[in-house]
Predict the structure.
Amino acid sequence: MGAPIRPRRPPADGRQGDVTLRWFACIPLAMLMVLGAPTARAADAMPAPVRAPAPAAAPSPSASDDLDRQLGRLLADPGPPLDPDVFGYQAIAIGPTALDQAWRDAQAPAASPLPADWAALVARIGGLPLRAQAEAVDEFVNRRVAVATDQEVYGVADHWASLAETIAAGRGDCEDFAIAKMRLLQMAGVPSRLLYLVLVRDTRRQVDHAVLLVREGDALLVLDSEAERVRTAGEVTAYRPIAGFSGESRWLFQTAQAAAALEAAEHPPGVDPAILPAPAIPTPGAARTAPDAPQ
């Protein structure tokens, strides 16, 4: 066996710092840049006095309230939205659609502050229960915004207006109402994952329409420009959902039986759904052929 390894004794003259410098001389330059090489003999170096950090300035009440709201939203919005099974139909998650850009544009933040009455609404409902928030926003928008087609307001067959555009125009169609309500609820602190823009077919009037759904526990509230009050989804019998949007999630809707058959036909084992073509989704306001009634 080899001789036992003994710790090196410091030189007789006590120059322990030279040993330390020689050791650092073996470290690659890149590592020294991270660690920081010594600049003085270790024997001469003295630890710097530890000083207590200066006390942080107390946040102003408005800053503290803003932090509380942000934290509350973060804790209340932990993940993606649940599938919005509604009106007796099952939601089927899908990939990108032709309406994604319109959806993103409609959620653009306002470039300027809200008008005083709109801002007062957001401030007033901030601490209310979700149902009360939904009812206040639904009534406010239905009273403040006049019904008009996109052709009348923007000169095009279909346009999903942002909240700022709807406020400026004072008019809009059904999806403009729904988007305005969604943005106001978000500004009041409602997590985005609880809000759904849903395109529907009104089977009674035989027209396409759009509503905002708000998830309250296990129930879905329906905020509708054509209704005088907020209803639960179970109270609505004339709507057949076509497509839904919430955050980065998208859905089409089918009956439970059709959804099972569609899943088996379009997503056979071994086929990546991401390579399937994006589905065509009708939009309210554009001329379309009425879809077949569900079986």
Remarks:
- The longest strand covers residues 207-216.
- Confidence is low (pLDDT under 50) at residues 5-47, 286-295.
- The CA atoms of residues 90 and 110 lie 34 Å apart.
- The two ends are 88 Å apart (CA to CA).
